[in-house]
Structure formats: C-alpha cells, structure tokens
Amino acid sequence: MSKLFRKKMIVAILAIMCGAAIVQAQEVNMSRYVTLNVTKNEKASLSLTADADNTPLKIVSGGQENAVTIGTSWTDSKEYASVDGTITIYGNVQKINCSNNDKKLTGIDVSHNAELTILFCFKNALTTLDVGNLTKLEYLYCNDNKLTSLDLSKNKQLSKLNCFGNTISSLDLSQNSQLEIVRCYKNVLTKFNINGCNQLTLLHCGENRLTSLDVSANTKLERLYCDNNDISKLDVSNNEQLNTLFCYNNKLSVEAFDDLFCSLPNRKDKEAGKIAPTLNKSSAEKDKILSTNGINAITRNWDVQYYEEEYNISGFKGTHQCGGSTGIDETKGLPALAVYPNPVKDVLNIATDKPVHSIRIYNAYGTEVAHAADATSIDVSQLPAGVYMVRADGKVTRIIKE
Q: Quick check: pTM over 0.85?
C-alpha cells in the first residue's frame, strides 16, 4: 500500500468521524418541546437559553422551520411567524421569555419540557397556565394576563412569583417554602395562604378583596404592601425584619390601628421603618389615624406617613398604651370611667355623648376578654360572672358581671 493511499485513507476516515461528530452535535432533542398558541399569521417575540452552549433548536410553525443554536445566556429577542396558529420550540431549552406579545399569545403548553427553571410569559392573553410538571421552576412571571386560577403546589423550588394584574380569586402558596418575593396585587383574591413561605422577604398583595391576612409564619418578611383590601385586623408581631408596611385603604378601626402600631417590631438602632396607614391628607382615614396613639409606632422608630405625600403624620390624640399587664390591680391613678348598669348582665353602656374609640374589657388575670371600637356600648352577655376591668380611651373602671 503506497504512502499516498494511506494518507488519503486517514484523511477520509477523519472526515467521516468529524462529520459524524458534527451531525451528533447538531441533533435536536425532539422529545423536549414547548408549544405556544399564537394568532395565525402573527409573529411572537421570543428569548431563550439552553442547558449548555451550542445547543441546537428547531422552531416550527406549520411547514416553516427555523434552525437556531443557542447557549446558556439569554438570546436577543427575535420574532417568529405563526403559520398555523402554533409555534413549537424543540430542544433543550431551560429558560423561556415569551412576554409582551399582548393579545397574540393565548396559550402555552410546557408539559413536554420539565427542565424549565424560568418562565416569563407576562403581558399576554393567557386564560390558563398549567405548570404542574415544572418541578425545577424557580422564577414565574405570568402577570398581566387573563388568569383566573394558578396552581403552584408542585413548584417547590419557586423563589420569585409575579402574578399581578390577573383575576385570580384564590392563591395557596403554603407548599412553596422557597418563595422570597411574591407580587400578586391587582387580582380579586379572597383566599390567600402564605403560611409555608418562611423565606418570604417581600409581599405585595394590595388591590385585592382580602378580609384577613396572616403573616405570622413569614418571619423574614421585610416589606409588606397590603393596601386597598378589606382587612380589619393586622398583626406583625412575628415579623422582626419588617421595615416597610403600606396598609392604607382597608377596614382597620382605630382600635385595630392601635393594635397594629403596638405589634410593629422595635427598630431602635436601625434605620427608621416606614408605615403608611392612610393615603393622603384628604383621605377619610385621616381622622381615624389621628384618633390613634401613633406615638406607639414612633417610639419603635417607625415613620408614620401619608402614602402620597410621604411626610410624617402628627397630631395624634389617642392614649392607648402597649404591652404590660392590664389586670384589676392596675387601675390606681387612672381617670375614672362612667358606665351603666353596674352590675351588668347583657350590655354595658359608656356614659358619653359620642362614640368611644376603643373599649376593652379584662379579667382578673389581665387577659382581654372583649373589645369594641367606635361605640358607646359593649355586649358582655357571654362573659362568666365575676369582676372585670373596663378601659376606654385612657379611662378605667371596675364592673361586676352577673
């Protein structure tokens, strides 16, 4: 065999091997794909990343096929035509951004790509979104769509969620223990569970229909925006890291605001916290806030501010005191409160010509057993017979319940 022939054989073999390697390297994983429903003859904008560099993809619609190669960094946003009403992305895609397609993008099927870690699909026209198979999903931004429900019970790695601007009425995040940021404002939420979110640092649930909000389990919470709801009571005593609270335009009474101020974490030797309990100086809540003892918040190093004007509220008239025992033996030295009848069976009346901001009744152990707000009387019919202390706007008296 001549040397020339051997060289030609070696070159041919190497060419075949390289060709095979190239074919293998360019093979698209056709078993892994995501399908978008896009209005026929319209274009959808996409940005993608893959599991690894030099990953081949096929983006198919009807008989039209686009072959692209991507890496682990986001590609520039590019438009792809919808020939038959769908666009299917084949290959090892790890992150997808199909946002800002407005009314053109009406559906997305991710059931055949369980490796997705990021899904950005905001500002579209999605009415449903099933992410139950995306167990590795970390970021989900599906805000500004037409979603009425969202099941995230299987997405236990989720750390950031934006689902605001939809019409979701119930959201259960109790299984999402890794969540750090939740923005679910501008929905119609009446049911909301975040009890399992012990890593949560930011919660924006404003502009919903919540009547209650339990944040007792969210001990790392730093910022809470729950404005424009129907919340009647809010306790943040477990939220030691809290530094910002916007709770204006709710249904908190003077008494509830006083309790809230007393539950604020003490930020002594830290940057002042900021609480906005009312929208502005013209708000109907203004007089209610001025009737509280806002000094209780200020002494905890919180700035009590109007939300819009962003300057501190002053002129508080309330006398509510935080903490400490309020037992029978502590009435000495406090102004006397006039009540009738005493002894009482059913309804205790306060001798006043205008509503009392806060009426609280304590048993002999200092435990609050009844309360009322903005009233001139309080129902004590359910209390056991005995001696009680009544406190109303800084005045106290003892009563006998028959």
A: no
